[in-house]
Write a structure and sequence with these properties.
With 148 residues, the chain is mainly alpha-helical. It has one domain. It contains six helices and two strands. The protein has a two-stranded antiparallel ribbon with strand order 1-2. The longest helix has 17 residues. 29% of the residues are buried. The site of iron/sulfur cluster (SF4) has 10 residues, from loops.
């Protein structure tokens, strides 16, 4: 794996990530995410979301906005951003993978063909930002927090 470069100054990444998330919301695919958090328990779900660099930087903003500077592991092996109240602490900043649920109760994972264009946009942004592809959530956000 190549060394990760410092993030270039690119104020547009936030606008692009938010535009992608907004476009996802407009897709006519019924989902009922009501902060069920089933997908946040990685060991139980059997999945960990993978984040591109733009998503990680955006999520790191959410972490900072919540008053934290680092991630602390969750005692149950769940997402470190799952709060003590059982809710996501960065819900508005949650990554793409958290929005395209692994959670069967909320409607199941989005078929890739319905979101492939959005994934491609995230990958293109990753490249622009000097990323090297998707990384597991905890490491991706921890790196983003350390860099900015
Ligand atoms: S970022 Fe939020 S929604 Fe995504 S896995 Fe973590 S706690 Fe769950």
């Amino acid at each position: 794996m190549k060394n990760r470069k410092p993030a270039p100054a690119d104020p547009d990444y936030r606008a692009e990530v938010e535009a992608i998330y907004a476009e996802l919301e407009r897709r006519p695919l019924p989902r009922q995410c009501e902060m069920r958090t089933g997908c946040c328990h990685f060991r139980l779900a059997g999945h960990t979301p993978l984040l591109t660099r733009g998503e990680a930087l955006h999520a790191a903003q959410g972490v900072r906005a919540s008053g934290r500077k680092v991630l602390k592991p969750h005692p149950d092996g769940a997402c470190p951003l799952l709060g003590r109240d059982g809710k996501c602490t960065i819900y508005k900043h949650r990554p793409f993978g958290c929005r395209t649920h692994f959670c069967a109760a909320a409607g199941g994972m989005y078929p890739r063909k319905h979101v492939a264009d959005l994934i491609h946009r995230l990958e293109a942004l990753d490249e622009r930002l000097g990323g090297d592809g998707s990384r597991p959530l905890e490491g991706a956000i921890a790196s983003a927090l350390a860099e900015r």
